[in-house]
Amino acid sequence: MQDFRMKTFLQVCEDMNYTRAAEHLCITQPAVSAHIRYLEKTYGVPLFIYERKKLTLTRAGRLLRDSARRLQNDEEHLAQVLRYTAGLKNINFGATLSVAEFMIPRRLIDFCQSDPDIRLHMLVFNTDTLLKMLDGGQIDFALVEGDFPKELYSSLLLSMEDFVAAGSPRAARQYQGASVSDLLNETLLLREEGSGSREILQTQLSKRGISLGAFSRIHEIASIGAIKELAAADLGITFLYKAAIKPEMAGGRLLPLKLSDFHVSHPISFIYRKGTIFEDDFKRIFEALAGK
């Protein structure tokens, strides 16, 4: 099990504040300071520096943080592996909303049918939250459409998905062959901060010299279902994965906007912490989900 001082260190890395870390750990601030001093003495290097009333990690501190997070994640997975020996097959993972709702249900059906003893525990959050959960060992791997630090995570390509502008039949007719800049008078129906879909849109708009603020109005909504209903009612246009609007496309309620300058496909990635000792296990799960 991970040393309690290392848990204190990781909490300070999360909060970057001794007082808040003490509150989260339910210990005193002097105890937090003592734990950090112990680690610094043990490793012979400073882990934090305090300048201009701001706490920052040293290079050694960053290295220890990343290594400790990998160990924490492996410890959680090891506990599951040990439970497997008792006949339990619990698989804890996370997925972003678009992936969970529209891209992997069929894959999960096949996966579960391949082994009736499997027990899935899937959490659904935006990309930012899933990365934090992965770092904290709360999940073993994640299926995300958002960008992530390639230096921290290993990734496997699950699929490539079309990312499109979408709107009502009126919008589809009006903007046939138009450019992204022609949409700026429309209300933009946008996912919340931290969502992979929003990050992709911001990146694509930036490449075209357009900011989110250029749209006449923005409705920020953390529900894909609500976004689709508003768009189908001609109360705005949106950008999301084509897989997410297939049912509405079949009924003619919501259609892709066939723009002249927006042809985007984005990878759906299976990610896990680099350096994990359980990489072979994760690759086997990936192959099962990918149907390989």
How are the elements arranged and paired?
Elements: H1 4-15, H2 18-25, H3 29-43, E1 48-51, E2 54-57, H4 59-84, E3 89-95, H5 97-103, H6 105-114, E4 118-124, H7 127-135, E5 141-144, E6 153-167, H8 169-174, E7 187-190, H9 196-207, E8 217-220, H10 224-232, E9 237-241, H11 246-251, E10 255-256, E11 264-273, H12 279-290
Parallel strand pairs: 3-4, 3-5, 7-8, 7-9
Antiparallel strand pairs: 1-2, 5-11, 6-9, 6-10, 6-11
Helix pairs in contact: 1-2, 1-3, 2-3
**How many strand segments?**
11
Q: Note poorly predicted spans.
A: none
Biggest sheet layout: 9 strands, mixed
How big is the Rg?
A: 23 Å
Distance between the termini: 35 Å
Order of helices and strands: HHHEEHEHHEHEEHEHEHEHEEH
Overall 3D shape: globular
Which class best fits the helix and strand makeup? Answer: alpha/beta
Mean pLDDT: 89
What portion of the residues fall into strands of 2 or more residues? 15-25%
Q: In DSSP terms, counting alpha (H) and pi (I) runs of 4 or more, how many helices?
A: 12
How much helical structure, as a percent, in the residues?
40-55%
Task: Report on this structure.
The protein is α/β, with parallel strands linked by helices and 292 residues long. It has helices at 4-15, 18-25, 29-43, 59-84, 97-103, 105-114, 127-135, 169-174, 196-207, 224-232, 246-251, 279-290; strands at residues 48-51, 54-57, 89-95, 118-124, 141-144, 153-167, 187-190, 217-220, 237-241, 255-256, 264-273. The strands form 2 sheets. Strands 3, 4, 5, 6, 7, 8, 9, 10 and 11 form a 9-stranded mixed beta sheet that branches. The chain has a two-stranded antiparallel sheet with strand order 1-2. It is globular, with a radius of gyration of 23 Å.
